[in-house]
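Report of the visiting student (M.T.), summer placement. My assignment was to run the structure pipeline on a short list of targets and document each run. The first record concerns Cytochrome P450.
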Amino acid sequence: MKRCWACSYASMEMRIAFPALLERFPGLRVSPWAEVRAFQMVYGPASLPVAW
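After the run finished, the structure tokens were exported:
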């Protein structure tokens, strides 16, 4: 089964970026008034409001 190179790149980016972001901003969290909309199975949410 073939996979798009961008899929592998995005997966690697998320494994590296999210832990680094949370390490840099330990108080970062999803905003309590956030409305996560436009969720699509492939593309994910259009936006994710955060607070710290």
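The radius of gyration is 14 Å. DSSP finds one helix and two strands in the chain. I thank the supervising group for their guidance throughout the placement.
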